[in-house]
Design a protein that fits this description.
The complex is a heterodimer of chains A (about 120) and B (about 120). Chain A is built from no helices and eleven strands. Chain A is mostly beta strands. The chains are: A mainly beta (about 120), B mainly beta (about 120). At the A-B interface, strand 4, strand 5, strand 9 and strand 10 of A face strand 5, strand 6, strand 10 and strand 11 of B.
Chain lengths: ~120, ~120
């Protein structure tokens, strides 16, 4: 059973470009979460999605960031017009259910560097 | 507001000895979950152990155990018989229960170095 897949593992962008980060949840998991880890910090929640629905986006910056989890295909975190402050590790996690004891399993992360 | 506090930025431990990593939390919810994750230098986040707020017994997973003291709002991770491969960053996290969201709130982490 493959784990959470994220690609690319490393992404370099120039200021003003767009970054697209992909996440495929574990098989059987229909809930996806995105977190951001700035250098030397813990992870910060960004958004929680189910198929075709955004459940909680309280951690998403108001501008330039968007996320989707379509019926088919991976979840996408999109950052438009990147700035140097967007440089971070972006982690995706998945779980089978939203309640109870279900653990979130993390992907390997995408390390975004903005030049 | 929910909060996780890890007061130890770094810890040293001798190989084969036990070590305790501290974690305290703050929440007004009655139902919540507590997690520990390991982040080695390679960067991935590895789930270690889970404790539910209603669980009466401390969680254990192999060499990992969680010392859950609900009244003190602490959830310390105990690693027994440390190995060199345990050297990593360790994060404590909390999930609220009962709401629509399932987000995790993370502490700032403790960097553990196991010495031979």
């Amino acid at each position: 059973n493959a784990g959470v897949m994220q690609n690319p593992r490393h992404l370099v962008r120039r200021r003003g470009q767009e970054a697209r980060l992909r996440c495929s949840p574990m098989k059987g998991h229909s809930h996806v979460y995105w977190y951001r880890q700035l250098p030397e910090e813990g992870l910060k929640f960004m958004v929680y999605l189910q198929k075709e629905n955004i459940i909680d986006e309280s951690g998403m910056p108001k501008e330039r960031f968007s996320a989707e989890f379509p019926k088919e295909g991976p979840s996408i975190l999109r950052i438009q017009q990147v700035v140097r402050g967007d440089s971070a590790a972006y982690f995706c996690a998945s779980s089978p259910l939203s309640q109870g004891t279900d653990t979130q399993y993390f992907g390997p992360g995408t390390r975004l560097t903005v030049l | 507001a929910q909060k996780i506090t890890q007061t130890q930025p770094g810890m040293f431990v001798q190989e084969k000895e036990a070590v305790t990593l501290d974690c305290t939390y703050d929440t007004s919810d009655q139902s919540y979950g507590l997690f520990w994750y390991k982040q080695p230098s390679s960067g991935e986040m590895i789930f270690l152990i889970y404790q539910g707020s209603y669980d009466e017994q401390n969680a254990t997973e192999g060499r990992y155990s969680l010392n859950f003291q609900k009244a003190r709002k602490s959830a310390n991770l105990v690693i027994s018989a440390s190995q060199l491969g345990d050297s990593a960053m360790y994060f404590c996290a909390m999930r609220e229960g009962g709401g629509a969201t399932n987000k995790l709130i993370f502490g700032t982490g403790t960097l553990l170095a196991v010495q031979p």
